[in-house]
UniProtKB/TrEMBL annotation:
Gene: dprA
Record-annotated DprA winged helix domain positions: 313-366
Entries under Gene3D superfamilies matching the protein: 3.40.50.450, Winged helix-like DNA-binding domain superfamily/Winged helix DNA-binding domain
Organism of origin: Qipengyuania aurantiaca
Lineage of producing organism: Bacteria, Pseudomonadati, Pseudomonadota, Alphaproteobacteria, Sphingomonadales
Residues in Smf/DprA SLOG domain copies: 84-289
Protein name per Swiss-Prot or TrEMBL: DNA-processing protein DprA
Length: 373
């Protein structure tokens, strides 16, 4: 191992850190299944040993990620000048850790303390109007001056303007590996943020951005911040996905209103109609988020219902027989628990076995489906 893997004091050894990376990179393992495996087996090393048997119970043969692949990844993180951050390390952002499917492992460059300050996410259209770009830059500057860290996704348009306005008090969350600049025209901005702000990636180094990575990136943007501000966006856009994720996490959702004649304003106006808070100045945002206590003023999407259980329950549970309740149509996990009459831990364990076997897909808002044949 090397300096890229920075274990938590006294609790996470180098070998366990390596095992955690290998576990998360293994087939069909996502943030939810990773957390379930740690809860059931206690360590990633024990979970890795159990994976073939769990896959067999789910109906498929299973092989974990090869060790040499993880060794190459760790070398790539080191070469990029980045470090790993694990979900239970002291510096892991508190608000991010509270969301469903919080990323178990991140890579980062820059000033990690920026994530410990009050954060506000700013998102919007890539093809934003000139007026909206200037507005985003002004809001970014005003919020940074008010003591906030501005979080965005380094995309063209609103994202880039928000970063520029708040620089260096800004966090860039990317959908690629920590060593890949995307979009290419923001390579200089991304490097500046990595040097003087904070750059965060969930994907392994060398990973090019794909369409499926952007919703995952959006959940990190929303999760880091007490509130998400949409500056300008169409109704069907990634920015509104970020806003929905923020609402489901119980965070503040804010939007700047625009002309009903401008299609790029329809998303913001829709958010406001659905319960987001209308804001017109950085001072409005600061007032909403200063001392945020987890009770948003916005009513845009209530947090989804959760069925919690203790790790000890997961360790002792026997999987429920729920396969017959699942189809390719999304169903909420809480509905599976109600209909099966089984405990939350037993249902989650059954889902875990199906997921490891590649027979289950997880979706937003705690919904699951069988994988299409």
């Amino acid at each position: 191992m090397n300096e890229a893997v920075h274990p938590a004091p006294a609790t996470l050894t180098q070998d366990e850190a390596f095992a955690r990376i290998r576990l998360l990179r293994s087939p069909n393992i996502g943030p939810v299944s990773y957390a379930m495996l740690l809860a059931r087996f206690g360590t990633a090393a024990e979970a890795l040993e159990a994976l073939p048997e769990l896959g067999k119970k789910g109906g498929r043969q299973y092989r974990a990620a090869p060790r040499d692949k993880i060794e190459r990844e760790v070398d790539g993180v080191r070469i990029a000048g980045a470090k790993y951050l694990f979900h239970d390390q002291p510096d892991y952002p508190r608000l991010l850790g509270e969301i469903d499917s919080a990323p178990p492992i991140l890579t980062w460059r820059g000033d990690l303390s920026l994530a410990a300050r009050p954060c506000v996410a700013m998102v919007g259209a890539r093809n934003a109007s000139a007026a909206a770009v200037k507005l985003a830059r002004d809001f970014g500057q005003g919020l940074a001056e008010a003591g906030f860290t501005v979080v965005s996704g380094l995309a063209r348009g609103i994202d880039g303007a928000a970063h520029e306005g708040a620089f260096p008090q800004t966090i860039g969350v990317i959908a690629s590996g920590i060593d890949i600049a995307y979009p290419p025209q923001h390579s200089d901005l991304q490097e500046r943020i990595a040097r003087d702000g904070l750059l965060i990636a969930e994907q392994p180094p060398g990973t090019e951005p794909r369409g499926s990575h952007f919703p995952s990136r959006n959940r990190i943007i929303a999760g880091l911040a007490a509130g998400t501000l949409v500056v300008e966006a169409a109704v069907k856009s990634g920015s509104l996905i970020t806003a929905r994720l923020a609402g489901e996490a119980g965070r503040e959702v804010m939007a700047i209103p625009g002309s009903p004649l401008e299609a790029r304003s329809h998303g913001c106006n829709h958010l406001i109609r659905e319960g987001a808070v209308l804001v017109q100045s950085p001072e409005d945002v600061a007032e909403l988020l200063t001392g945020f206590d987890g009770s948003p003023r916005s009513t845009f999407r209530e947090p989804s219902e959760q069925f919690d259980f203790e790790p000890s329950e997961m360790a002792e549970a026997e999987p429920a027989d729920i396969a017959s309740l699942l189809t390719t149509a999304p169903v909420a996990i809480d509905e599976l628990i109600r209909q099966s009459g089984e405990s939350a831990a037993a249902v989650q364990l059954a889902l875990l076995e199906l997921e490891i076997a590649g027979r289950l897909e997880r979706h937003a808002a705690g919904r699951v489906t069988l994988t299409p044949a």
